[in-house]
TrEMBL record:
One of its GO terms (cellular component) is membrane. It holds the Pfam family LpxD. The keyword Acyltransferase applies. It comes from Polaribacter porphyrae. InterPro entries: Hexapep, LpxD, Trimer_LpxA-like_sf, UDP_GlcNAc_AcTrfase_non-rep. GO terms for biological process: lipid A biosynthetic process. SUPFAM superfamilies: Trimeric LpxA-like enzymes. Signal peptide: none annotated. The keyword DNA-binding does not apply. This is UDP-3-O-(3-hydroxymyristoyl)glucosamine N-acyltransferase. GO terms for molecular function: N-acyltransferase activity. It comes from the Bacteria.
């Protein structure tokens, strides 16, 4: 998430009332999670296991809960609770704005696009030309939709990420400040749910077609010309490369990559990253031919008994 204008380290520290290490005028351009940080961003870290990863990431400001040596060319924000303060910054720079109408005045809708009854379109949504948005679709704030997109009834774009910190008092939610982006010629079936990114984008690229009742988690990127069948659940921070086919009732772990042109057969559990150009099946996932050989061998053994 990039700020609308450049901030200073001192200003950020003032917002969350914390110490800082670095020049007061040190430039801060945005804030992001570790997997999408860029130069100028703030990243937060609150566990020793991930200190080095955060300090050595592309982020140039690290919101951290321990005084450590500051890497050259970077700055630190010292907080007793980085998770809480990251949420404070999200709310400050991207506050929730309630809507008073079904289609926000700030929404931009392209020529030839059809909006059916009972659709909700939030603040600062952009929809391209010649789209069809069917009844009861909900499109949260800041979503971006390209040209020639079809979204079927009851689909929801932009719900919060499923991302919580377990505290003694209960689960504390990481506030979502990202977006959903659908490129040109994407089709979404009925009752799909596409969560927004925590700080970045959940993206579905050009020409991809998604069946009914599919869930896509936060910050996932689905490539061009993919086919995803019904009742598939894709976790957060997944990368699905171009021309992947995923059949029904597949589930994935978070943070994995499915390579270009892969085929994932129905009811597979994608427990790890897999290369492209092959067919996969089963839980844990294996190449389909190997898995089917194993199942045939097991069947023979059972018959022999």
């Amino acid at each position: 998430m990039k700020f609308k204008k450049q901030q200073t380290l001192a200003k950020i520290a003032q917002i969350i009332n914390c110490e800082f290490v670095g020049s007061e005028e040190f430039s801060v351009l945005g804030m992001n999670e570790i997997h999408v940080v860029e130069e100028g961003d703030i990243v937060f870290v609150d566990h020793p296991k991930y200190y080095d990863k955060a300090l050595n990431s592309a982020a140039t400001t690290i919101l951290i809960n321990k005084k450590v040596d500051c890497p050259e060319g970077k700055s630190l924000l010292i907080s007793d609770d980085p998770f809480r303060d990251f949420n404070k910054l999200t709310k400050h720079f991207n506050p929730f704005i309630s809507s008073k109408e079904s289609i926000a005045d700030t929404a931009i809708i392209g020529e030839g696009t059809i909006i059916q009854p009972n659709v909700f379109i939030g603040n600062h949504v952009t929809i391209g030309k010649n789209c069809i948005i069917h009844p009861n679709v909900t499109i949260y704030d800041n979503s971006v939709i390209g040209n020639n997109v079809t979204i079927h009834a009851n689909t929801v774009l932009g719900a919060d990420a499923f991302y919580y910190k377990n505290r003694p008092t209960g689960f504390d939610k990481l506030v979502s400040g990202g977006r959903v982006v659908l490129e040109n010629n994407v089709d979404l079936g009925a009752s799909c749910t596409i969560d927004k990114g925590v700080t970045g984008n959940t993206t579905i690229k050009e020409g991809t077609k998604i069946d009914n009742q599919v869930h896509v988690g936060h910050d996932t990127v689905i490539g061009k010309k993919c086919l995803i069948a019904s009742q598939t659940g894709i976790a957060g921070c997944v990368i699905i490369e171009d021309e992947v086919t995923i059949w029904g009732q597949v589930g994935t772990n978070s943070g994995i990559t499915i390579g270009k042109g892969a085929v994932i057969l129905g009811q597979t559990g994608v427990t790890k990253s897999v290369p492209g150009g092959k067919s996969y099946f089963g839980t844990p996932i294996e190449e389909s031919r190997e898995k089917l050989k194993q199942l045939a061998g097991l069947k023979r053994l059972l018959k022999e008994k």
